[in-house]
């Protein structure tokens, strides 16, 4: 085993209570825990960046879902990148950069086969965003689930966020005739058209989504990438053309609701228009990873794809970053820099 001088304890964020509606800081606890030296086949990682993601809100509820709920009194798992500081595993050396799923903690001891070594020629946090889970969600959702074809018109909600900002840019780079995005502030709307190359964008807080979408895409859309649900989905069903597709990726408008959502009330339109509405989980699409990294990495290298990040500095501000994400405090991928 190779190792540097290691601390005996590190900080972790635990789930302290299950929220009703919007989560609050008191639902989390900052805990000092022993740092475990790696056993045979394990590595010890010092995290550099943590991911905070909307799906984590669902895991705070004690309900059966596609991922098990977080346990009370246990660490909030999730994407993290860092460097190996001690290794008892073949093929991993001190200093190696790795991606893993052990989440909101300063130090993680894990089986080496649960870590993915990443190339640190790129900024490490890219593997949590543009080249990571959210980037792949956008790529697979638009191309594989949505069956996007060049010349089609695309609408994406949550357009200034991690997934949405990639969806719009990939659509444009793959030859969309029109890319429309919606977001929750005028500043985000400006960024979409002026920096990310969207053709049209609107602020969903400025008026009914259906009206703003009709103005943005008077001839309708072929693909709707749904990050939001509710009113957005209803508006998109109205705007989709014959044989249109809606990719149901997320429904963030209702993650903190305590009563069932209304709508979409116009679902019957899907019959006559022969629409396809299909749910997606990124986990089903990891076979696309090499093609995704090659194409998106290429666009990044050529400077044709802008990847926005909002980095909250400091491990102690992880909860603030997560709660901010749910309210739209981010543009692009929301991240925490552990040492900020
Ligand atoms: P984002 O970076 O998009 O952050 C969340 C954004 O949601 C906020 O910035 C905010 O932006 C927006 N938002 C919050 N409340 C509302 C609301 N009531 N109406 C409209 N927008 C709202 O997160 P991600 O890119 O990581 O995730 C986007 C969506 O994709 C989420 O729904 C997530 O659950 C889903 N997802 C699904 C995956 C899958 O496998 N199916 C994988 C990854 C993500 P604004 O200021 O514009 O309101």
3D structure, described in words:
With 340 residues, this protein is an alpha/beta fold. The chain has 2 domains: 2-128 and 307-337, Quinone Oxidoreductase, Chain A, domain 1, CATH 3.90.180.10; 133-283, Rossmann fold, CATH 3.40.50. The chain contains 9 helices and 16 strands. It has helices at residues 55-59, 133-145, 162-173, 186-194, 209-216, 230-239, 269-272, 289-301, 318-326, and strands at residues 2-3, 9-15, 28-34, 42-51, 80-87, 97-100, 107-111, 116-117, 153-156, 178-183, 200-203, 221-226, 240-248, 276-279, 309-313, 333-337. Strands 1, 4, 5, 6, 7, 8, 15 and 16 form an 8-stranded mixed β-sheet that branches. Strands 11-10-9-12-13-14 form a 6-stranded parallel β-sheet, sandwiched between helices. Strand 10, helix 4 and strand 11 form a beta-alpha-beta unit. Helix 2 crosses helix 3 (162-173) and helix 5 (209-216) runs parallel beside helix 6. The radius of gyration is 21 Å and the shape is globular. The protein starts with a strand and ends with a strand. The relative contact order is 0.15. The mean pLDDT is 96. The structure holds NADPH dihydro-nicotinamide-adenine-dinucleotide phosphate.
CATH topology of the largest domain, what is it called?
Quinone Oxidoreductase, Chain A, domain 1
Instruction: Please state roughly what percent of the residues sit in beta strands, choosing from under 5%, 5-15%, 15-25%, 25-35%, 35-45% or over 45%.
Output: 25-35%
CATH architecture of the largest domain: Alpha-Beta Complex
> Approximately how much helix is present in the residues?
10-25%
Mean pLDDT: 96
């Amino acid at each position: 085993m190779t190792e540097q001088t290691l601390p005996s304890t590190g900080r972790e964020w635990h789930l302290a209570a299950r929220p009703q509606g919007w989560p609050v800081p008191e639902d989390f606890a900052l805990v000092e825990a022993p740092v475990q030296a790696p056993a045979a086949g394990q590595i010890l990682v010092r995290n550099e960046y943590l991911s905070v993601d909307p799906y984590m809100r669902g895991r705070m509820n004690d309900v059966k879902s596609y991922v098990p709920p977080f346990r009370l009194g246990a660490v909030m798992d999730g994407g993290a990148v860092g460097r190996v500081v001690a290794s008892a595993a073949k093929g991993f050396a001190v200093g190696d950069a790795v991606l893993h799923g052990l989440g909101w903690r300063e130090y993680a001891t894990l089986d080496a086969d649960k870590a993915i070594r990443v190339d640190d020629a790129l900024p490490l946090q890219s593997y949590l965003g543009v080249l990571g889970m959210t980037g792949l969600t956008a790529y697979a959702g638009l191309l594989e689930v949505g069956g996007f074809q060049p010349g089609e018109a695309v609408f994406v909600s949550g357009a200034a966020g991690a997934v949405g900002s990639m969806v719009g840019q990939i659509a444009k780079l793959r030859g969309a005739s029109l890319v429309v995005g919606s977001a929750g502030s005028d500043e985000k709307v400006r960024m979409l058209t002026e920096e990310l190359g969207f053709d049209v964008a609107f602020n969903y807080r400025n008026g009914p989504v259906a009206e703003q979408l009709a103005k943005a895409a008077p001839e309708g859309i072929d693909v709707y990438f749904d990050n939001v649900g509710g009113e957005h989905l209803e508006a998109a069903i109205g705007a989709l053309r014959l044989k249109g597709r809606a990719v149901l990726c997320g429904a963030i408008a209702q993650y903190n609701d305590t009563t069932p959502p209304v709508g979409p009330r116009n679902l019957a339109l899907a019959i006559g228009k022969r629409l396809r509405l299909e749910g997606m989980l990124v986990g089903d699409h990891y076979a696309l990873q090499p093609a995704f990294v090659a194409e998106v990495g290429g666009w990044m290298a050529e400077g044709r794809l802008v990847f926005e990040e909002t980095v909250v500095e400091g491990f102690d501000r992880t909860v603030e970053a997560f709660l901010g994400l749910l309210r739209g405090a981010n543009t692009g991928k929301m991240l925490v820099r552990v040492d900020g």
